[in-house]
Design brief:
Length: about 700
C-alpha cells in the first residue's frame, strides 16, 4: 500500500496511484459561473447555482431537530443556508463576518428561500472562478471531495503513473477497429476527465459521450470481454461426461423416450429446437454452460426433465436447484409425477428438512441411489456429496450469488470431471446484458408458448375502486374459476407485509362468505405452504391471498384472475412473473393492477407498459433502462464486476467493438491480455468467470 494514501481512502479500495486515477468523476459541477443572490433567487429554483455573500447570522436550532441555520447577505438580498448534519468546523467556517461562496438548489423554506446542505467555501469576494468544470467523485462516509481531489491530483503527478497508463493496445488494431474515431490515448483521456480544460465540451462530459469517456468505456469493456472469452476457452479445455442419446435394446428401456411417451402434450417446435441445442452440448466432452430463456409458461421445465432423463440414461445423477422452497417443491412434485412411474428415484433436499430426513437424503445422494435430486441451495452445501453428478439445472439463476453458481467438480474414477450446467430464467435477459455479463454462456430461447395458452388481459385501476374489484372477484368465483389476490410489497418490513396479507385475507373472507379464502406467505413452514397450495390446486380453496412467494413455479390452470394490490410498488419483472401465474387454462385470463395515488411518473409509465405489452423481452429492456444491470443481475451475482463507466443502453455499439478487439487480442497479442485484465479488473476477473 502507498503510505501517502489516507486510511479512509484505502478503505474505499483507493490504495495506490493507479486505483486513484481510475476513480473517475461520477458528475461535474459548473463553478465557472457566479450569480448575485438576487439572480440566484430568480434562477436557482430550477438548477444548481453558485452565489456568495457575507455571513450575517449563524445559529444552532433545536426544533424540530438539531440543525445549523446560516444567513448570508449580498447587496441587501438575504439567503438562508440550512444544515441538518454538521460539524463544529463548519460552524467555525461560517462565523458571522466570514465571506463564503455557496452552491446548491434554492427552495422555499419556512422562513423564505433557502439552500439545504449547499457546498460551501470560505473565499475572498474577488477570488477567481475555476476555468473548467469541477469533478465530483463517488465517496464514502467521512471522505470529502476536497480530500479526494487532492489525492487524485497527487496521483496524476506520481512519477510512475505514466508507465502504468502507457498505451499498450497496438495502434494497428485500434486503427482497424476504430477508423472513424479519433480517440485520445488512455493517459490523455483519463487526465482530461479529472481536469477538463476550459474549452472542453461540457455537455458530452456530463452525459459521458465525450471521446475521453469513450476511450475509457472501450478499455473497461475490452477487459471484461477478454475475461469472459478466456473463461469460455478454459471451460472448453475441461473434461465433462459425454452424455448421449441412449439406444434401447431388449429389456433396457430409455428413460428419455419413456418420459416423452408419458408427457400429456407434444413439444412445440421451439422446445424441439432448444432440446436439440442442449442435447448437442451434453454430448461434447467439455461442460455445457447454457442459459435457457423462456417467458413464463413457455415450457422450460420439460426441457430440464429431458436433460435429466438423458443424464440418468447415461448412468449419471441430475440435480435441479431453485432459489425458494415453494418453487423447488413445485419442481419436485412435477418430477415425481413424470419420473417415478419410469422407476427413477427422485429425492427432495432442502434446508427445512429435519436432521434425520436430511441425513437420509444425503446418504441416498452419496450412494448414487438418488438419481434425480431436487431442492434449494441446500444441494450445494459442503455436507452434500454426489456420487456421480452429470447435470446441474439451476432455475431462476439470477437469484443465486456468484459463488453459488461456480461449477461443481468431482473425481469420477481416476478422472476429474465437471458437471454440465443449465441455467433457466423466465426473466428474459436483454440483448446488451447477454452480450456483456453473459458472454460466457450459450443462450437458448423458447420463443413460443404452448398451444392453447391464451393472452392475458391486463387492466389498471385506482385503489379507490377496490369494492368494485371484490364484486368482480365474486362473479368470477361464481363461474367456478379461481383467483389470486397478491398483497402489496413492503420491502422495508416483512412483518408489516405479513400483517397486510393477514388483514386482506380476513377482509376478503368476510366479503366472500360463499367461497373458501386461503393465505400463503413467506413465513409459513414449508409443509403448511404445501398444504395450502395443494388445497388451492384441488379447488378446495377458491381465492388464494398471497405475498410474492407465488411469483414463480405455481401452476393452477383453473386460476385465471389475478389482482395485485399497490401494483406501483412492484417492478416490471415481478409483475410480469406474477401475471404469468394465470393464463394456464382454457378460460380467458385477466390481471388487475390496482394502484394508490399519487403515482410517480416512473410508476405511471411502468403500469402503462405492463397494460400494453406482454412480451417479456420488451419488458426486460424497459427494466434495464429503469434499474440498470445491477438489480437485474442480482447484486450478489454481479459481485464487484459491475461496469463502472459503461451504460449498456447508451453504449451498446461499443460492446461489439470490444468483443472484436477481445478476440483479436486473445488470438494475436496474448502477452497483452494479462496487462489489460490487471489494469482494469485486478482480482475481480474471477467474478466474471462464474
Amino acid at each position: 500500500m502507498t503510505k501517502t494514501v489516507p486510511p479512509a481512502l484505502q478503505k474505499m479500495g483507493l490504495d495506490s496511484p493507479m486505483a486513484l486515477v481510475l476513480h473517475l468523476p461520477m458528475r461535474y459541477e459548473d463553478e465557472t459561473e457566479l450569480l448575485s443572490i438576487a439572480e440566484a433567487l430568480e434562477l436557482g429554483r430550477f438548477r444548481s447555482v453558485q452565489t456568495q455573500g457575507v455571513v450575517i447570522r449563524n445559529q444552532v436550532l433545536f426544533r424540530p431537530r438539531r440543525q445549523l441555520v446560516v444567513s448570508i447577505e449580498d447587496a441587501g438580498e438575504v439567503l438562508q443556508l440550512r444544515f441538518l448534519n454538521f460539524y463544529p468546523s463548519q460552524q467555525k467556517q461560517m462565523a458571522v463576518g466570514a465571506h463564503v461562496r455557496v452552491r446548491g438548489e434554492i427552495r422555499e423554506g419556512f422562513q423564505g428561500p433557502e439552500m439545504v446542505h449547499p457546498t460551501v467555501r470560505a473565499l475572498a469576494p474577488d477570488a477567481p472562478l475555476p476555468k473548467s468544470l469541477t469533478p465530483v467523485y463517488p465517496a464514502s462516509a467521512g471522505v470529502t471531495q476536497t480530500v479526494l481531489r487532492k489525492a487524485i491530483s497527487s496521483a496524476l503527478k506520481d512519477p510512475n503513473i505514466h508507465d502504468l497508463l502507457v498505451e499498450f493496445l497496438p495502434s494497428k488494431l485500434l486503427a482497424e477497429l476504430l477508423p472513424s474515431h479519433q480517440w485520445p490515448n488512455l493517459e490523455a483521456a483519463i487526465t482530461l476527465l479529472h481536469q477538463p480544460p476550459a474549452d472542453a465540451d461540457t455537455q458530452t462530459l456530463l452525459d459521458r459521450t465525450h471521446l475521453a469517456w469513450r476511450r475509457v468505456q472501450f478499455e473497461e469493456l475490452l477487459a471484461q470481454q477478454i475475461s469472459l472469452k478466456r473463461a469460455h476457452s478454459i471451460r472448453q479445455k475441461r473434461r465433462a461426461p459425454e452424455i448421449v442419446k441412449a439406444t434401447e435394446s431388449g429389456s433396457k428401456k430409455s428413460i428419455e423416450s419413456g418420459l416423452l411417451k408419458v408427457l400429456p402434450f407434444k413439444l412445440t417446435s421451439a422446445q424441439d429446437r432448444v432440446w436439440d441445442e442442449i442435447g448437442h452440448d451434453l454430448s461434447r466432452g467439455f461442460p455445457m454452460n447454457r442459459l435457457l430463456q423462456g417467458d413464463v409458461g413457455s415450457g422450460k421445465t420439460v426441457i430440464a426433465a429431458l436433460a435429466a432423463a438423458r443424464a440418468i440414461d447415461n448412468g449419471y445423477q441430475a440435480a435441479i436447484m431453485a432459489p425458494t422452497e415453494i418453487l423447488a417443491e413445485q419442481h419436485f412434485l412435477k418430477m415425481q409425477e413424470w419420473f417415478e412411474p419410469l422407476g427413477v428415484k427422485v429425492v427432495w433436499l432442502s434446508g427445512s428438512l429435519k436432521a434425520k430426513e436430511k441425513r437420509l437424503a444425503q446418504d441416498l445422494v452419496e450412494s448414487s441411489e438418488a438419481q434425480l435430486i431436487v431442492g434449494t441451495h441446500a444441494l450445494i452445501q459442503e455436507s452434500v456429496h454426489f456420487a456421480k453428478l452429470g447435470l446441474a439445472v439451476i432455475d431462476e439463476q439470477h437469484r443465486f450469488g456468484v459463488r453459488q453458481r461456480m461449477e461443481i467438480q468431482q473425481r469420477i474414477g481416476s478422472e476429474l470431471l465437471y458437471c454440465h450446467q443449465m441455467m433457466m430464467s423466465a426473466t428474459p435477459i436483454p440483448r446488451t446484458l447477454a452480450m456483456t455479463y453473459y458472454a460466457d454462456l450459450d443462450v437458448s430461447v423458447i420463443d413460443e408458448l404452448p398451444p392453447g395458452r391464451k393472452p392475458i388481459t391486463t387492466k389498471v385501476l385506482k385503489a379507490s375502486r377496490r369494492n368494485e374489484v371484490i364484486d368482480g372477484v365474486k362473479e368470477w368465483l361464481a363461474k367456478g374459476l379461481q383467483a389470486y389476490w397478491v398483497c402489496p410489497l413492503i420491502e422495508e418490513s416483512e412483518a408489516l407485509q405479513l400483517q397486510t396479507a393477514i388483514e386482506s385475507a380476513e377482509q376478503l373472507t368476510l366479503a366472500l362468505p360463499n367461497f373458501k379464502v386461503g393465505l400463503v406467505h413467506g413465513r409459513m413452514k414449508s409443509d403448511e405452504k404445501a398444504a395450502v397450495m395443494a388445497a388451492f390446486k384441488a379447488n378446495e380453496i377458491q381465492l388464494l391471498v398471497a405475498t410474492t412467494v407465488i411469483e414463480v413455479g405455481v401452476d393452477v390452470p383453473n386460476a385465471a384472475l389475478m389482482v395485485i394490490e399497490h401494483a406501483e410498488r412492484f417492478g416490471y419483472a415481478q409483475i410480469h412473473q406474477l401475471r404469468g401465474r394465470v393464463g394456464r387454462g382454457s378460460a380467458d385470463s385477466v390481471c388487475i393492477l390496482m394502484y394508490a395515488e399519487p403515482l410517480s411518473q416512473a410508476a405511471k409509465e411502468r403500469l402503462q407498459t405492463l397494460r400494453e405489452v406482454s412480451d417479456g423481452f420488451v419488458i426486460a429492456e424497459r427494466d434495464l433502462s429503469l434499474r440498470g444491470p445491477g438489480e437485474l443481475l442480482g447484486a450478489r451475482q454481479s459481485g464487484d464486476a459491475m461496469l463502472r463507466f459503461v451504460d449498456l443502453q447508451r453504449d451498446a455499439w461499443l460492446i461489439e467493438l470490444a468483443q472484436q478487439a477481445a478476440e483479436r487480442l486473445l488470438a494475436e497479442y496474448p502477452d497483452l491480455v494479462e496487462k489489460q485484465l490487471a489494469r482494469w479488473l485486478g482480482s475481480r476477473a474471477e467474478f466474471l468467470k462464474a
